[in-house]
Protein backbone atom coordinates (compact mmCIF):
# COMPACT_ATOMS: atom_id res chain seq x y z
CA UNK A 1 0.00 0.00 0.00
CA UNK A 2 1.34 3.45 -0.89
CA UNK A 3 2.47 5.86 1.83
CA UNK A 4 -0.25 8.48 1.03
CA UNK A 5 -3.01 5.88 1.36
CA UNK A 6 -1.55 4.57 4.63
CA UNK A 7 -1.45 8.13 5.99
CA UNK A 8 -5.05 8.64 4.97
CA UNK A 9 -6.06 5.38 6.62
CA UNK A 10 -4.23 6.31 9.80
CA UNK A 11 -5.97 9.67 9.91
CA UNK A 12 -9.27 7.94 9.25
CA UNK A 13 -8.81 5.54 12.15
CA UNK A 14 -7.55 8.16 14.62
CA UNK A 15 -10.38 10.57 13.80
CA UNK A 16 -12.94 7.86 13.22
CA UNK A 17 -15.91 8.96 15.27
CA UNK A 18 -15.72 12.74 14.91
CA UNK A 19 -14.90 12.78 11.20
CA UNK A 20 -17.52 10.26 10.16
CA UNK A 21 -20.18 11.96 12.26
CA UNK A 22 -19.53 15.30 10.58
CA UNK A 23 -19.50 13.77 7.12
CA UNK A 24 -22.68 11.85 7.80
CA UNK A 25 -24.60 15.00 8.54
CA UNK A 26 -23.45 16.65 5.29
CA UNK A 27 -23.88 13.56 3.12
CA UNK A 28 -27.37 12.73 4.32
CA UNK A 29 -28.56 16.26 3.72
CA UNK A 30 -27.46 16.15 0.09
CA UNK A 31 -28.17 12.51 -0.74
CA UNK A 32 -31.03 11.88 -3.15
CA UNK A 33 -33.50 9.29 -1.89
CA UNK A 34 -33.01 6.87 -4.77
CA UNK A 35 -33.01 3.16 -4.00
CA UNK A 36 -29.28 2.82 -3.12
CA UNK A 37 -29.44 5.89 -0.86
CA UNK A 38 -32.48 4.89 1.15
CA UNK A 39 -31.48 3.48 4.56
CA UNK A 40 -32.22 -0.23 4.94
CA UNK A 41 -35.04 0.40 7.41
CA UNK A 42 -36.90 2.21 4.59
CA UNK A 43 -35.82 -0.08 1.75
CA UNK A 44 -37.99 -3.13 0.92
CA UNK A 45 -34.96 -4.85 -0.61
CA UNK A 46 -33.75 -5.74 2.89
CA UNK A 47 -37.03 -7.36 3.98
CA UNK A 48 -36.81 -11.06 3.14
CA UNK A 49 -39.77 -13.05 1.84
CA UNK A 50 -41.67 -14.94 4.52
CA UNK A 51 -41.24 -17.82 4.64
CA UNK A 52 -37.78 -17.95 3.11
CA UNK A 53 -37.69 -19.84 -0.18
CA UNK A 54 -36.23 -23.33 -0.11
CA UNK A 55 -32.49 -23.44 -0.58
CA UNK A 56 -29.18 -23.93 1.11
CA UNK A 57 -26.77 -21.64 2.94
CA UNK A 58 -25.19 -19.16 0.55
CA UNK A 59 -28.03 -19.14 -1.97
CA UNK A 60 -28.88 -15.68 -3.31
CA UNK A 61 -32.46 -14.69 -2.52
CA UNK A 62 -32.34 -11.45 -4.50
CA UNK A 63 -29.77 -9.02 -5.87
CA UNK A 64 -29.55 -5.66 -7.57
CA UNK A 65 -26.83 -3.44 -9.05
CA UNK A 66 -25.39 -1.00 -6.56
CA UNK A 67 -22.67 1.64 -6.27
CA UNK A 68 -19.42 1.48 -4.32
CA UNK A 69 -18.06 4.92 -3.50
CA UNK A 70 -15.44 6.51 -1.28
CA UNK A 71 -16.89 9.96 -2.02
CA UNK A 72 -19.21 11.04 0.85
CA UNK A 73 -20.35 14.21 -0.93
CA UNK A 74 -20.88 13.51 -4.63
CA UNK A 75 -21.29 9.73 -4.27
CA UNK A 76 -19.30 9.25 -7.48
CA UNK A 77 -18.81 5.53 -8.25
CA UNK A 78 -15.39 4.08 -7.55
CA UNK A 79 -13.69 3.65 -10.89
CA UNK A 80 -13.25 0.20 -12.37
CA UNK A 81 -15.57 -1.68 -10.01
CA UNK A 82 -18.98 -3.28 -10.45
CA UNK A 83 -21.16 -3.57 -7.37
CA UNK A 84 -24.18 -5.56 -6.31
CA UNK A 85 -26.23 -5.66 -3.15
CA UNK A 86 -27.45 -9.15 -2.27
CA UNK A 87 -29.82 -10.82 0.12
CA UNK A 88 -28.71 -14.37 0.79
CA UNK A 89 -29.39 -17.38 3.01
CA UNK A 90 -27.30 -17.94 6.10
CA UNK A 91 -27.88 -19.53 9.49
CA UNK A 92 -28.17 -18.36 13.07
CA UNK A 93 -25.80 -19.63 15.74
CA UNK A 94 -28.42 -22.31 16.49
CA UNK A 95 -28.68 -23.37 12.84
CA UNK A 96 -31.97 -21.70 11.95
CA UNK A 97 -32.19 -20.29 8.40
CA UNK A 98 -31.90 -16.50 8.24
CA UNK A 99 -31.65 -13.93 5.47
CA UNK A 100 -28.53 -11.74 5.55
CA UNK A 101 -27.67 -8.80 3.32
CA UNK A 102 -24.31 -7.90 1.84
CA UNK A 103 -22.30 -6.48 -1.04
CA UNK A 104 -20.32 -8.04 -3.87
CA UNK A 105 -17.62 -5.92 -5.56
CA UNK A 106 -15.78 -7.07 -8.70
CA UNK A 107 -13.08 -5.20 -10.64
CA UNK A 108 -13.97 -4.59 -14.27
CA UNK A 109 -10.40 -5.24 -15.37
CA UNK A 110 -9.80 -8.80 -16.52
CA UNK A 111 -8.13 -11.07 -13.98
CA UNK A 112 -4.71 -12.15 -15.28
CA UNK A 113 -3.40 -14.03 -12.27
CA UNK A 114 -4.27 -17.48 -13.54
CA UNK A 115 -7.35 -19.52 -12.75
CA UNK A 116 -10.52 -17.84 -11.59
CA UNK A 117 -10.57 -14.46 -9.89
CA UNK A 118 -10.09 -14.79 -6.11
CA UNK A 119 -12.77 -13.65 -3.68
CA UNK A 120 -11.98 -12.07 -0.33
CA UNK A 121 -14.86 -12.39 2.13
CA UNK A 122 -14.20 -9.21 4.10
CA UNK A 123 -15.55 -9.14 7.66
CA UNK A 124 -15.99 -5.59 8.90
CA UNK A 125 -15.32 -4.23 12.36
CA UNK A 126 -17.90 -2.78 14.73
CA UNK A 127 -20.53 -0.60 13.10
CA UNK A 128 -23.24 -0.58 15.75
CA UNK A 129 -26.67 -2.13 16.15
CA UNK A 130 -28.88 -0.11 13.80
CA UNK A 131 -29.76 -1.06 10.23
CA UNK A 132 -28.26 2.18 8.91
CA UNK A 133 -24.85 0.88 10.04
CA UNK A 134 -25.02 -1.97 7.51
CA UNK A 135 -21.92 -1.96 5.25
CA UNK A 136 -24.10 -2.61 2.18
CA UNK A 137 -25.56 0.83 2.85
CA UNK A 138 -22.53 2.75 4.12
CA UNK A 139 -20.45 1.56 1.14
CA UNK A 140 -22.95 3.31 -1.15
CA UNK A 141 -22.54 6.53 0.82
CA UNK A 142 -18.75 6.90 0.97
CA UNK A 143 -19.24 6.57 4.71
CA UNK A 144 -17.54 3.30 5.60
CA UNK A 145 -14.33 3.53 7.63
CA UNK A 146 -12.89 0.40 6.00
CA UNK A 147 -13.66 1.42 2.42
CA UNK A 148 -10.01 2.15 1.59
CA UNK A 149 -8.93 -1.28 2.80
CA UNK A 150 -11.58 -2.77 0.55
CA UNK A 151 -10.38 -0.57 -2.30
CA UNK A 152 -6.84 -1.84 -1.76
CA UNK A 153 -8.03 -5.44 -2.19
CA UNK A 154 -9.95 -4.49 -5.32
CA UNK A 155 -6.83 -2.80 -6.68
CA UNK A 156 -5.07 -6.17 -6.53
CA UNK A 157 -7.68 -7.61 -8.84
CA UNK A 158 -9.57 -9.54 -6.18
CA UNK A 159 -13.33 -9.55 -5.84
CA UNK A 160 -14.51 -8.51 -2.38
CA UNK A 161 -17.67 -9.76 -0.67
CA UNK A 162 -18.83 -7.95 2.47
CA UNK A 163 -21.53 -9.36 4.71
CA UNK A 164 -23.79 -7.19 6.86
CA UNK A 165 -24.08 -10.11 9.30
CA UNK A 166 -27.28 -11.27 10.95
CA UNK A 167 -29.73 -8.49 11.78
CA UNK A 168 -27.69 -5.58 10.47
CA UNK A 169 -29.68 -4.19 7.55
CA UNK A 170 -32.28 -6.94 7.64
CA UNK A 171 -35.15 -6.90 10.18
CA UNK A 172 -34.41 -7.96 13.73
CA UNK A 173 -31.66 -7.09 16.18
CA UNK A 174 -28.03 -7.55 15.16
CA UNK A 175 -26.42 -10.51 16.95
CA UNK A 176 -23.33 -8.47 17.72
CA UNK A 177 -20.23 -10.54 18.54
CA UNK A 178 -22.02 -13.89 18.47
CA UNK A 179 -19.15 -15.59 16.69
CA UNK A 180 -20.99 -18.69 15.51
CA UNK A 181 -23.47 -16.55 13.57
CA UNK A 182 -20.82 -14.16 12.23
CA UNK A 183 -18.54 -16.93 10.97
CA UNK A 184 -21.40 -18.54 9.06
CA UNK A 185 -22.40 -15.19 7.56
CA UNK A 186 -18.83 -14.67 6.30
CA UNK A 187 -18.57 -18.12 4.70
CA UNK A 188 -22.05 -17.88 3.20
CA UNK A 189 -21.18 -14.43 1.83
CA UNK A 190 -18.36 -16.05 -0.14
CA UNK A 191 -20.78 -18.70 -1.38
CA UNK A 192 -23.30 -16.02 -2.38
CA UNK A 193 -20.64 -14.08 -4.31
CA UNK A 194 -19.72 -17.21 -6.26
CA UNK A 195 -23.36 -18.14 -6.90
CA UNK A 196 -24.39 -14.67 -8.06
CA UNK A 197 -24.79 -15.17 -11.79
CA UNK A 198 -24.20 -11.54 -12.77
CA UNK A 199 -20.67 -11.19 -11.40
CA UNK A 200 -19.06 -14.01 -13.39
CA UNK A 201 -16.95 -15.26 -10.49
CA UNK A 202 -17.78 -18.95 -10.27
CA UNK A 203 -15.97 -21.32 -7.93
CA UNK A 204 -12.48 -19.92 -7.50
CA UNK A 205 -10.08 -19.39 -4.59
CA UNK A 206 -11.37 -17.70 -1.44
CA UNK A 207 -9.80 -15.92 1.51
CA UNK A 208 -11.25 -14.31 4.62
CA UNK A 209 -10.08 -11.09 6.22
CA UNK A 210 -11.31 -9.16 9.26
CA UNK A 211 -10.26 -7.00 12.20
CA UNK A 212 -11.86 -6.39 15.63
CA UNK A 213 -15.45 -7.64 15.35
CA UNK A 214 -14.33 -8.74 11.91
CA UNK A 215 -11.49 -10.63 13.60
CA UNK A 216 -14.03 -12.64 15.56
CA UNK A 217 -15.93 -13.32 12.33
CA UNK A 218 -12.76 -14.31 10.48
CA UNK A 219 -11.60 -16.55 13.33
CA UNK A 220 -14.92 -18.35 13.38
CA UNK A 221 -14.89 -18.70 9.60
CA UNK A 222 -11.44 -20.29 9.92
CA UNK A 223 -12.66 -22.78 12.51
CA UNK A 224 -15.92 -23.61 10.73
CA UNK A 225 -14.73 -23.76 7.12
CA UNK A 226 -13.69 -27.42 6.93
CA UNK A 227 -16.94 -28.77 8.37
CA UNK A 228 -19.41 -26.06 7.34
CA UNK A 229 -18.23 -25.02 3.88
CA UNK A 230 -15.83 -27.74 2.65
CA UNK A 231 -16.47 -26.94 -1.00
CA UNK A 232 -14.98 -23.46 -0.70
CA UNK A 233 -11.40 -23.28 -1.95
CA UNK A 234 -10.29 -21.42 1.15
CA UNK A 235 -6.62 -20.46 0.88
CA UNK A 236 -6.02 -18.39 4.00
CA UNK A 237 -7.52 -16.27 6.76
CA UNK A 238 -6.44 -12.94 8.25
CA UNK A 239 -7.81 -12.29 11.73
CA UNK A 240 -6.69 -9.12 13.52
CA UNK A 241 -7.53 -7.56 16.88
CA UNK A 242 -9.56 -10.67 17.67
CA UNK A 243 -12.09 -10.67 20.54
CA UNK A 244 -11.66 -14.42 21.00
CA UNK A 245 -12.92 -14.81 24.57
CA UNK A 246 -15.88 -12.54 25.32
CA UNK A 247 -15.71 -13.17 29.07
CA UNK A 248 -12.14 -11.88 29.13
CA UNK A 249 -13.04 -8.97 26.84
CA UNK A 250 -15.97 -8.01 29.09
CA UNK A 251 -13.75 -8.04 32.17
CA UNK A 252 -11.30 -5.78 30.36
CA UNK A 253 -13.97 -3.33 29.17
CA UNK A 254 -15.89 -2.91 32.43
CA UNK A 255 -15.31 0.59 33.76
CA UNK A 256 -13.36 1.81 30.70
CA UNK A 257 -14.17 4.46 28.08
CA UNK A 258 -15.30 1.69 25.72
CA UNK A 259 -17.73 -0.15 27.98
CA UNK A 260 -20.55 0.56 25.49
CA UNK A 261 -19.12 -2.21 23.30
CA UNK A 262 -19.74 -4.70 26.10
CA UNK A 263 -23.32 -3.49 26.46
CA UNK A 264 -23.80 -3.93 22.70
CA UNK A 265 -22.53 -7.50 22.92
CA UNK A 266 -24.94 -8.19 25.79
CA UNK A 267 -27.83 -7.17 23.54
CA UNK A 268 -26.41 -9.26 20.69
CA UNK A 269 -26.25 -12.35 22.89
CA UNK A 270 -29.70 -11.74 24.33
CA UNK A 271 -31.01 -11.66 20.76
CA UNK A 272 -29.27 -14.87 19.75
CA UNK A 273 -30.19 -16.63 23.00
CA UNK A 274 -33.57 -15.23 24.17
CA UNK A 275 -33.55 -17.46 27.26
CA UNK A 276 -30.75 -15.29 28.66
CA UNK A 277 -33.42 -12.71 29.58
CA UNK A 278 -31.22 -9.61 29.69
CA UNK A 279 -34.10 -7.38 30.79
CA UNK A 280 -34.50 -9.42 33.95
CA UNK A 281 -31.10 -8.22 35.18
CA UNK A 282 -31.51 -4.51 34.40
CA UNK A 283 -32.27 -1.66 36.76
CA UNK A 284 -33.98 1.56 35.63
CA UNK A 285 -30.76 2.93 34.12
CA UNK A 286 -30.19 -0.33 32.27
CA UNK A 287 -33.69 -0.37 30.82
CA UNK A 288 -33.31 3.23 29.64
CA UNK A 289 -29.97 2.39 28.00
CA UNK A 290 -31.46 -0.66 26.33
CA UNK A 291 -34.38 1.35 24.98
CA UNK A 292 -32.20 4.16 23.64
CA UNK A 293 -29.41 2.11 22.07
CA UNK A 294 -31.08 -0.72 20.15
CA UNK A 295 -30.66 1.08 16.82
CA UNK A 296 -27.51 3.08 17.51
CA UNK A 297 -24.66 3.37 15.02
CA UNK A 298 -21.27 4.20 16.49
CA UNK A 299 -20.45 6.66 13.73
CA UNK A 300 -23.43 8.91 14.35
CA UNK A 301 -24.43 11.63 16.79
CA UNK A 302 -26.37 9.08 18.87
CA UNK A 303 -23.42 6.70 18.78
CA UNK A 304 -20.97 9.30 20.04
CA UNK A 305 -23.44 10.30 22.74
CA UNK A 306 -23.79 6.68 23.86
CA UNK A 307 -20.03 6.23 24.03
CA UNK A 308 -19.64 9.42 26.07
CA UNK A 309 -22.51 8.87 28.49
CA UNK A 310 -21.51 5.28 29.26
CA UNK A 311 -17.75 5.91 29.45
CA UNK A 312 -16.16 4.56 32.66
CA UNK A 313 -19.46 3.04 33.79
CA UNK A 314 -19.63 -0.48 35.20
CA UNK A 315 -22.02 -3.36 34.73
CA UNK A 316 -23.28 -2.73 38.26
CA UNK A 317 -24.43 0.78 37.25
CA UNK A 318 -27.05 -0.77 34.96
CA UNK A 319 -28.01 -4.05 36.65
CA UNK A 320 -29.57 -5.39 39.80
CA UNK A 321 -27.26 -8.42 39.51
CA UNK A 322 -24.48 -9.23 37.09
CA UNK A 323 -25.66 -11.60 34.34
CA UNK A 324 -22.07 -12.54 33.55
CA UNK A 325 -21.90 -14.30 36.91
CA UNK A 326 -24.67 -16.74 35.94
CA UNK A 327 -24.16 -20.21 34.43
CA UNK A 328 -26.47 -19.36 31.50
CA UNK A 329 -24.51 -16.31 30.37
CA UNK A 330 -21.16 -18.00 30.93
CA UNK A 331 -22.27 -20.96 28.83
CA UNK A 332 -23.45 -18.75 25.95
CA UNK A 333 -20.21 -16.77 25.90
CA UNK A 334 -18.06 -19.88 26.24
CA UNK A 335 -19.87 -21.59 23.37
CA UNK A 336 -18.70 -18.72 21.15
CA UNK A 337 -15.13 -18.72 22.43
CA UNK A 338 -12.51 -19.29 19.74
CA UNK A 339 -9.75 -21.85 20.04
CA UNK A 340 -11.55 -25.19 20.27
CA UNK A 341 -10.92 -26.15 16.63
CA UNK A 342 -7.75 -25.80 14.57
CA UNK A 343 -8.21 -23.83 11.34
CA UNK A 344 -7.61 -26.02 8.31
CA UNK A 345 -5.85 -23.26 6.33
CA UNK A 346 -2.97 -20.88 7.14
CA UNK A 347 -3.94 -18.00 9.42
CA UNK A 348 -2.28 -14.61 9.91
CA UNK A 349 -3.28 -13.36 13.36
CA UNK A 350 -2.34 -9.80 14.29
CA UNK A 351 -2.78 -7.74 17.42
CA UNK A 352 -1.80 -4.31 18.72
CA UNK A 353 0.67 -4.30 21.58
CA UNK A 354 -1.17 -1.48 23.36
CA UNK A 355 -4.72 -2.49 22.47
CA UNK A 356 -6.91 -0.59 24.88
CA UNK A 357 -10.16 -2.31 23.78
CA UNK A 358 -9.42 -5.98 23.03
CA UNK A 359 -6.96 -7.50 25.53
CA UNK A 360 -3.76 -8.82 24.01
CA UNK A 361 -3.62 -11.66 26.53
CA UNK A 362 -6.79 -13.37 25.32
CA UNK A 363 -5.68 -13.02 21.67
CA UNK A 364 -2.33 -14.53 22.58
CA UNK A 365 -4.19 -17.40 24.28
CA UNK A 366 -6.09 -17.99 21.03
CA UNK A 367 -2.96 -18.19 18.94
CA UNK A 368 -1.42 -20.61 21.43
CA UNK A 369 -4.58 -22.75 21.45
CA UNK A 370 -4.59 -22.95 17.67
CA UNK A 371 -0.89 -23.76 17.61
CA UNK A 372 -1.34 -26.51 20.20
CA UNK A 373 -3.89 -28.13 17.90
CA UNK A 374 -1.48 -28.11 14.96
CA UNK A 375 -2.73 -25.08 13.06
CA UNK A 376 -0.51 -23.11 10.70
CA UNK A 377 -0.53 -19.70 12.40
CA UNK A 378 1.60 -16.64 11.75
CA UNK A 379 1.28 -14.49 14.89
CA UNK A 380 2.45 -10.89 14.96
CA UNK A 381 2.16 -8.20 17.62
CA UNK A 382 2.53 -4.55 16.54
CA UNK A 383 4.29 -3.29 19.61
CA UNK A 384 3.63 0.47 19.40
CA UNK A 385 0.06 0.31 18.05
CA UNK A 386 -3.25 0.66 19.86
CA UNK A 387 -6.52 -0.84 18.62
CA UNK A 388 -7.38 1.52 15.75
CA UNK A 389 -3.82 2.02 14.49
CA UNK A 390 -3.31 -1.74 14.75
CA UNK A 391 -5.75 -2.07 11.87
CA UNK A 392 -3.63 0.25 9.75
CA UNK A 393 -0.26 -1.15 10.79
CA UNK A 394 -1.25 -4.74 10.08
CA UNK A 395 -2.86 -4.10 6.69
CA UNK A 396 0.27 -4.34 4.50
CA UNK A 397 1.26 -7.64 6.12
CA UNK A 398 -2.29 -8.93 5.80
CA UNK A 399 -2.45 -8.11 2.10
CA UNK A 400 0.98 -9.63 1.47
CA UNK A 401 -0.13 -12.78 3.31
CA UNK A 402 -3.23 -13.15 1.13
CA UNK A 403 -1.28 -12.37 -2.04
CA UNK A 404 1.05 -15.28 -1.30
CA UNK A 405 -1.84 -17.61 -0.48
CA UNK A 406 -3.58 -16.83 -3.76
CA UNK A 407 -0.26 -17.37 -5.55
CA UNK A 408 -0.03 -20.84 -4.05
CA UNK A 409 3.10 -20.12 -2.01
CA UNK A 410 3.76 -22.27 1.03
CA UNK A 411 3.90 -20.67 4.45
CA UNK A 412 5.23 -22.01 7.70
CA UNK A 413 3.83 -20.22 10.72
CA UNK A 414 5.77 -19.20 13.80
CA UNK A 415 4.02 -21.43 16.36
CA UNK A 416 7.37 -22.81 17.42
CA UNK A 417 8.83 -19.36 17.89
From TrEMBL:
Any one GO biological process: lipid catabolic process
One function term, GO molecular function aspect: triacylglycerol lipase activity
Origin species: Actinomadura barringtoniae
Source organism, top-level taxon: Bacteria
Compositionally biased intervals (Pro residues): 37-54
Signal peptide coordinates: 1-29
Entry keyword Signal: yes
Full protein name: Triacylglycerol lipase
Amino acid sequence: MSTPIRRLLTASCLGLVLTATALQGSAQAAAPQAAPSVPPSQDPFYTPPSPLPDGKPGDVIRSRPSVFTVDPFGKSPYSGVKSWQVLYRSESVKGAPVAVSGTVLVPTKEWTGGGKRPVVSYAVGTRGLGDECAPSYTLTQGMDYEELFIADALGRGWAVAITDMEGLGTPGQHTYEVGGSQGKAVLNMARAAQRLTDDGLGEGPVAVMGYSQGGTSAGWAAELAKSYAPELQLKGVVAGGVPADLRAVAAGLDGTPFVALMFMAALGYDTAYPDLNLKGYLNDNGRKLLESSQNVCLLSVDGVSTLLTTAFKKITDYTTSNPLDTPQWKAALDSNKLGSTAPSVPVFQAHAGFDEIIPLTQADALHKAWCAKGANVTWKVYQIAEHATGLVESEPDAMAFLTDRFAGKAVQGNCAG
